[in-house]
Design goal:
By secondary structure, the chain is an alpha+beta fold. Helix content is 47%, strand content 21%.
Length: 244
């Protein structure tokens, strides 16, 4: 999964090179809809080099996040995307200095650019908010028949359907995400897991122990842990008491 960051970083570096050195200013939002006179003005002011340099920086940020994660810093990817978002906002606002003078500017074009900026900002805020909400810790409640897991990707696990329940000291290797949330040590949703295939994860820690539940009805195994090992062991005892 982490290699996606590296791929995007390489693509951004390629894009920055086209914009800065090979006349790719037409890829810049607002420039491609401007009049010929406005484009000539912005090109003369150096908008291509300005945007190219910022995109080079975002590529460096994402590559740094990848390297940090590989070096063992759990939140490397997430922090790189946070910094990426900040850099993009700074670039957009600083780019206003390349706007043509009032006598040259097209009022409709300027108004459209402001609308686009507002829409982009709202989309980013909503997406980040949804991710944060989805990453909230689930609640585990026990009825007479099943364990209920609340929140994003929540489910009910019937005690009678549990084929195997075990507490492993270490997490198995986690592969790619099929549908879920990946925020540092927090993994929720459907992921590929070594030797288990597709699994439903509710992980709050990047280290063990981990509860592994396999079910008789051939549904995905469920992996659970808590921020602290003692919390995971206590939850395991609660589940085990119900199953037994």
């Amino acid at each position: 999964m982490d290699h996606v960051n590296l791929f995007i970083a390489c693509f951004l570096a390629f894009l920055a090179t086209i914009i800065k050195y090979f006349g790719g200013e037409g890829m810049i939002a607002g420039y491609n809809t401007a009049s010929k006179a406005e484009q000539e003005y912005m090109s003369a002011q150096g908008i291509g080099a300005f945007v190219g340099n910022y995109i080079y920086f975002t590529a460096l940020v994402l590559a740094g996040g990848y390297l940090a994660k590989r070096a063992g810093f759990t939140w490397g990817i997430e922090l790189s995307w946070l910094l990426f978002t900040i850099v993009i906002f700074v670039m957009v606002f600083r780019a206003q200095r390349f706007a043509p003078p009032p006598e040259m500017a097209n009022p409709k074009s300027a108004r459209l650019q402001k609308i686009v900026l507002v829409i982009v900002a709202v989309v980013i805020i909503l997406a980040e908010g949804a991710s944060i909400k989805g990453a909230w810790s689930p609640h585990y409640t026990f009825t007479n028949q099943a364990m209920q897991i609340s929140g994003a990707y929540g489910t009910a696990i019937s005690y009678s359907a549990i084929d195997d329940l075990r507490l492993e000291p270490q997490l198995p290797a986690i592969g790619y995400k099929s549908n879920g949330i990946n925020m540092g040590p927090i993994l929720k949703g459907y992921f590929q897991v070594d030797k288990l295939g597709s699994c439903l994860l509710f992980l709050r820690s990047a280290s063990g122990p981990v509860i592994i539940i396999t079910r008789q009805d051939k549904q995905e195994p469920v992996l659970i842990n808590m921020p602290e090992p003692a919390q995971t062991r206590e939850l395991y005892r609660q589940i085990q008491g119900r199953v037994d």
